[in-house]
């Protein structure tokens, strides 16, 4: 019999080589917070071997020391990050403070991404959006945003997800709020704590006991609670829609679980956003096929986007 996801995480080892001394971390301002967890900016001394080297990092921790479920979820996320290894297009692990676990304190130290999450970035830069037809030479420098940036992020996210899929790790919550932007226009998939994750407030609707990101969920996840790499592909389609609408909330006007499911079952899907090239619109629609097997893989989408990127240079 196959092990359940929770059991698999349980037996993943913690590698002591990731241990980082608590006294070499200086906590700073809060970067983000959800129901159970928070992320804080911090300075870490000697992360990469050298003693003097001070690096800005992000530290994930739980809000309340009494919430054992939240602590277990963070332990799972840490173990998954160790198992993953590393990739340019995911937020990578730098270290962890687990010696403090006796008093239910755990720090998970990850890469700091200077430009924050993609959803906020898109919304904050709507007024700096430039159509490539007007100026084809605009490059990413954190100020002006062009269609080329949107396509580049879409490609990089597909790459990060292809890496997760190759490691058989489901994301379960792929959305623009869970993509972070680092220097040089690098996009990184974050928060792949998946099934036992700490859901952030706002975009989640109560469904049974759990808060679920319903507008990003595949039809089979909504109706039968089935999650797979192919349901991550559905979410990627919604994420593409978010990117090319510059951060709009999906299915505007559609509220409520039952209403959404009914519309999706009737075949309703969102239109191609105005800023999206036709091929992006086609990828988007193919992500939302009823049959999960008919949806493209992340590597196929990577291929599709990169071939189009080449042909427009
Ligand atoms: N907000 C949440 N996680 C972050 C990170 N790793 N870098 C920057 N901002 C963040």
Principal-axes shape call: globular
How much helix, percentage-wise, in residues?
25-40%
For the biggest β-sheet, the strand order reads: 1-2-3-5-4
User: How many helices in DSSP terms?
Assistant: 9
Mean pLDDT: 86
Strands, total number: 11
The chain-level structural class is alpha+beta
> Hey, roughly how much beta strand do the residues contain?
15-25%
Radius of gyration: 20 Å
The major sheet is characterized as: 5 strands, antiparallel
**H/E topology pattern:** HEEEHEEHEEHEEEEHHHHH
The N- and C-terminal alpha carbons lie at a distance of 50 Å
Poorly predicted runs: 194-203
Bound molecules: adenine
Any descriptors?
two-stranded parallel ribbon, single chain, alpha+beta, 313 residues, 11 strands, 9 helices, binds adenine, 34% helix
What is shown here, in short?
This protein has 313 residues and is of the alpha+beta class.
What does it look like?
The chain is of the alpha+beta class and 313 residues long. 34% of the residues lie in helices and 17% in strands. The protein has nine helices and eleven strands. It has helices at 5-11, 68-84, 118-124, 147-166, 219-224, 229-244, 257-265, 278-287, 298-312; strands at 25-33, 37-45, 54-62, 93-97, 107-111, 129-130, 145-146, 179-181, 187-189, 205-207, 210-212. The strands form four sheets. The chain has a five-stranded antiparallel sheet, with helices on one face. Strand 8 and strand 9 (187-189) form a beta hairpin. Helix 4 runs antiparallel to helix 6 and helix 6 (229-244) runs antiparallel to helix 8. The longest helix is centred in the middle third of the chain and has 20 residues, at 147-166. The protein is globular. The structure holds adenine. Adenine binds next to strand 1 and strand 5. Adenine (ADE) is lined by residues 31-32, 39, 58, 91, 110-113, 116, 180.
């Amino acid at each position: 019999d196959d092990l359940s996801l929770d059991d698999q995480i349980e037996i993943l080892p913690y590698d002591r080589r990731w241990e980082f001394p608590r006294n070499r971390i200086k906590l700073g301002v809060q970067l983000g917070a959800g129901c159970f967890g928070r992320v804080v900016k911090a300075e870490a001394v000697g992360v990469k071997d050298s003693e003097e080297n001070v690096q800005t990092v992000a530290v994930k921790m739980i809000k309340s020391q009494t919430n054992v479920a939240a602590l277990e979820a963070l332990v799972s996320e840490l173990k998954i990050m160790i198992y993953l290894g590393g990739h340019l297009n995911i937020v990578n692990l730098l270290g962890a403070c687990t010696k403090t676990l006796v008093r239910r304190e755990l720090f998970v130290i990850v890469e700091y991404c200077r430009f924050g999450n993609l959803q906020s970035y898109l919304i904050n830069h709507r007024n700096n959006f430039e159509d490539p037809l007007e100026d084809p030479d605009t490059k990413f420098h954190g100020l002006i945003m062009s269609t080329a940036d949107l396509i580049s992020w879409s490609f990089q996210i597909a790459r990060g997800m292809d890496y997760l899929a190759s490691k058989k790790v489901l994301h379960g919550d792929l959305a623009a709020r869970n993509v972070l932007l680092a220097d040089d226009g690098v996009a990184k998939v974050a928060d792949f704590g998946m099934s036992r994750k700490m859901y952030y407030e706002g975009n989640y609707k109560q469904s049974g006991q759990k808060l679920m990101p319903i507008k990003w969920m595949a039809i089979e996840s909504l109706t039968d609670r089935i999650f797979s790499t192919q349901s991550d592909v559905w979410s990627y389609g919604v994420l593409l829609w978010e990117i090319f609408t510059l951060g709009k909330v999906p299915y505007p006007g559609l509220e409520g679980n039952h209403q959404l499911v009914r519309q999706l079952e009737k075949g309703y899907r969102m239109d191609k956003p105005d800023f999206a090239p036709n091929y992006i619109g086609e990828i988007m629609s193919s992500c939302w096929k009823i049959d999960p097997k008919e949806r493209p893989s992340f590597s196929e989408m990577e291929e599709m986007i990169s071939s189009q990127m080449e042909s427009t240079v």
